Backbone:
């Protein structure tokens, strides 16, 4: 059973809440004028999309991947290189990166479908490290540690904007895409198959679930969406290098965001990004390098230990209690 099946909110109520949240997000650039806060908000949108992409394979299917930074980097470098070398707009490059990442994700899924637990984690970790090493050493293509700088040419047609609000809506569109795909998978037959595989793969296989096909599809879709996030990130930052796109720590952070929010749920990764990214930024601004990392790690440990099912479980508990309180008051008034 999905964690989301126990939600205290009815499907109609969930749709209304999602629509209201979308309207509020659309209005953010009209209200928030501070450049720093808007910049941080765009970063949260990209991370929420990236964690949602990871959640399709890591949450629904239960494959704890520590190599998703590789797909993020594939998307970032594909769209950037196509723009720099061939003049192809990132609006097209984002799809090229998604296709390439989907192929790599499917290949990884085929190779690792028999692996479970720590063996699967180590395999994805090795894959991510290999991609990072290639990224660093293939200087003729990626320029290695020097990175790639996107010159400001063209404007909106090349996903390069003068105003942050345009990047906000681009990031919001990316988030709507990833969450929409995640919701579609969760409510489809594939979603039920993935949850069955996560809970008991042998039992699912005995009931006729196509194990390899389901895992490969989940891996490919997850990789493609992560690559889309990488393309948007590259256009937003306008500079990419191996450390910012394919480093191991980035893969850990992606998984951490989803886990803190609530893996295996549709909106858990979004909530996780809204918690983890501003928290890390605030600590770096207040404490600086080393001290910030220590406090950051400690706070995340506390969050995970106090809410093992993710922050989304706490939100649902609060909603449930509020509904009980409202119902009790209605009965008292009657």
Residues:
């Amino acid at each position: 059973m999905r964690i989301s099946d126990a939600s205290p909110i009815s499907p109609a109520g969930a749709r209304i809440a999602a629509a209201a949240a979308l309207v509020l997000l659309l209005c953010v650039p009209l209200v928030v004028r501070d450049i720093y806060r808007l910049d941080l908000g765009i970063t949260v949108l990209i991370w929420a999309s990236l964690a949602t992409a990871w959640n399709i394979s890591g949450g629904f299917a239960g494959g704890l991947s520590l190599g998703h930074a590789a797909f993020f980097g594939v998307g970032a470098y594909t769209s950037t290189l196509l723009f720099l070398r061939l003049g192809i707009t990132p609006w097209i490059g984002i799809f090229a990166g998604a296709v390439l990442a989907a192929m790599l994700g499917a290949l990884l899924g085929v190779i690792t479908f028999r692996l479970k637990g720590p063996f699967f984690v180590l395999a994805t970790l090795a894959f991510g490290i290999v991609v990072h090493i290639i990224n660093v050493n293939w200087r003729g293509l990626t320029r290695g540690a020097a990175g790639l700088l996107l010159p400001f040419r063209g404007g909106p047609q090349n996903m390069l904007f003068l105003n942050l609000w345009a990047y906000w809506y681009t990031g919001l569109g990316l988030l709507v895409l990833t969450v929409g795909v995640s919701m579609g998978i969760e409510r489809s037959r594939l979603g039920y198959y993935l949850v069955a595989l996560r809970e008991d793969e042998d039992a699912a296989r005995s009931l006729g679930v196509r194990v390899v096909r389901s895992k490969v599809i989940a891996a490919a879709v997850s990789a493609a969406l992560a690559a889309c996030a990488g393309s948007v990130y590259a256009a937003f930052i306008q500079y990419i290098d191996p450390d910012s796109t394919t480093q191991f720590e980035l893969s850990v952070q992606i998984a951490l965001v989803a886990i803190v929010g609530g893996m295996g749920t549709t909106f858990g990764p979004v909530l996780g990004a809204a918690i983890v990214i501003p928290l890390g930024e605030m600590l770096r601004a207040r404490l600086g390098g080393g001290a910030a990392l220590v406090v950051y790690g400690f706070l995340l440990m506390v969050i995970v230990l106090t809410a093992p099912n993710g922050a989304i479980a706490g939100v649902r508990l609060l909603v449930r209690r509020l509904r009980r309180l409202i119902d009790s008051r209605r009965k008292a008034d009657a």
